[in-house]
Amino acid sequence: MKKLYILLLISVSVLLSCKKEGDRQRTNYSYQEYPSIIQDRFGRQLILHGLNTSSSAKSHPERLPWIEERHVEREAKEYGFNFVRYLIFWDAIEPQKDVFDEAYLDKVEQRVNWYASRGMYVMLDMHQDLYSLKFGGDGAPEWACRTNGMAPISLPGETPWWLKNIDPAVITCWVNFWAYTDHKDLQDHYILAWKKVMQRFKNNPYVIGYDLMNEPWGGDLIKVFITGEFERNQLSAFYNRMIPQLRTVDNQKHFFFEPTPAPVTFGAPSNLPKISDSRSVTKLGYAPHCYPYDTHEGGGYTASSKQQLKDWERERKKDVALHGGIPLVCGEFGLSPTNAGYEEYLRDVNAMFDRNQWHWTYWSNDRGGWSPFDGDQVLPLAQHLLRVFPHATAGKINTFSFDPATKVFNMNYVNNASVPMPTEIFIPRQLYPGGWKLNISGTSDYTQTFDEATQILKIRATEDNASISVEIVAD
User: Fold this and answer.
1) pLDDT at 9 over 50
2) pLDDT class of 8 with cuts at 50, 70, 90
3) Is the pTM of this model over 0.85?
4) pLDDT category, 255, cuts 50, 70, 90?
5) Cis ω on the peptide bond leading into residue 292 (within 30° of 0)?
6) 46-386 topology per CATH
7) N or C: which end of the chain has fewer CB within 10 A?
8) Collapsing DSSP states into helix, strand and coil, what is residue 105?
9) Phi, psi for 349 (deg, rounded to 5)
10) Is 276 exposed, middle or buried (0-12, 13-18, 19+ CB in 10 A)?
């Protein structure tokens, strides 16, 4: 009887401890969702900065980026990047119709886990340029190229690559892709390829979401540039057709959608109507690209580029409001460091992102060129992407900013004491060789710790709904 009594006590203790652990886990994962921000699994508001990985994958025989795991380590620890826009390709996922390459997804998963193991978030981007590798770009498998018998044309060597979009064969492929009634199987298989990806990654908490199509192009230039019909009718129908189907596989992650690239990337208005989500609380993100024309084409940060950047901010704020105040992730911006005024451009575009609480991934993590890195070598451009910024906030951010000239960081947020994890701010030692000082106001009931290895400041405040101001200055 005594033994039985002891066993009963042990059993009750185990059950109670399991319940407590289960309650703790449920607390971690049960939080109010806000459609206007991106949150981690504890409910903290995220601000995401990172790189595209990478342009080199477009032409790689296996559609894989050049990076090794040590390069991911550098991005996380030395530069505080907590995000990556990772390029994947339809032709690698479904090289033959109804044949899906699980070996390719295995290799993608291995690389995604390099980021996830370091607490970095991943947005998987189904990338395309010029519709397909068949035309010198990337994206669709050859079986999905329906040219109606048209042969691709050649362009002079110095012609910008994107002008290939006026190739009649490329135009015809796009026109057929968007003609859902006549070529239903193309979009259906594109959606099926995404389902295969989502089945693989839906349970990885660091895969924050999916960029549904890189720079969707209308093909028909009149519908793209003159009438706006492409975005209003065909692109919106594509998103509204795809999103409910994909939600049957993954109902938890963000779906990011893009407008047509030109002329939106130059600061022009978009004609895309509001896109809907089929889940009860919207988890959509708007993912336009930002390339003022002169900076993109090597002309420098001209007066025209400065005006286009102002136009871009104004128009994208309108877009965000139209789509219900959803988060904006600028999936691509960048320029050659040989451009006149490139430092000023990076200062201005980052200030714009900060004041709007917009997320970004710089184009691109490659070897040289526009990249902040050349393999293991760090290039001067990297310094202009190095910033103090809040990785995760236990509450909701009102404002934050970082001035690279004065090295002053300011942030104000409303604290949510029920969030079980601290506010985390990345403070790179490279910017503060003589050290830094922290000033906090709005609460006196808080603790602070700094992790030297990750360069992360952690602040825990216990006062709920306190309006907390954080200032970091050079010592």
Assistant:
1) no
2) very low
3) yes
4) very high
5) no
6) TIM Barrel (3.20.20)
7) N
8) helix
9) -70, -35
10) middle
**DSSP single-letter state for residue 269:** P
Contact between residue 254 and residue 38 where contact means Cβ atoms under 8 Å apart: yes
For position 7, what pLDDT does the model report? 32
Q: How far is CA 112 from CA 36, 245, 263, in A?
A: 26, 24, 32
Q: Under CATH, what is the fold of the domain 387-475? A: Immunoglobulin-like (2.60.40)
- In angstroms, the CA 466 to CA 237 distance is 44
In the chain, what is the greatest distance between 2 CA atoms, to the nearest angstrom? 92
Is the pLDDT at 23 greater than 90? The verdict is no
Query: CA distances (Å), 457 to each of 67, 247, 279, 402, 418, in order?
Result: 28, 36, 35, 15, 20
**To the nearest whole percent, how much of the chain has pLDDT over 90?**
90
Task: Judge whether 424 and 76 are in contact, CB under 8 Å.
Answer: no
Could you give the residue range(s) of every CATH 3.20.20.80 domain in the chain? 46-386
Q: How far apart are CA 230 and CA 47, in angstroms?
A: 32
Residue-level pLDDT at 29: 55
Q: CA-CA distance, 61 to 92, in Å (whole number)?
A: 9
Percent of the chain with pLDDT over 70: 94
Contact 125, 83 (CB under 8 A): no
Is residue 299 classed exposed, middle or buried when 0-12, 13-18 and 19+ CB atoms within 10 A define those classes? middle
Q: Is the pLDDT of residue 125 over 70?
A: yes
CATH 2.60.40.1180 spans which residues of the chain? 387-475
Alpha helix stretches (DSSP H) within 289-328: 293-296, 303-322
Contact of 164 with 170, CB cutoff 8 Å: yes
Give the per-residue pLDDT at 153: 84
Q: Are 80 and 389 in contact (CB under 8 A)?
A: yes
How confident is the prediction for the chain on average, in pLDDT? 93
Helix (H, G, I), strand (E, B) or coil at 170: helix
pLDDT digits over 36-52, tens only?
999 999 999 999 999 99
Length of the chain: 475
Bridge partners, 88 (sequence order): 126
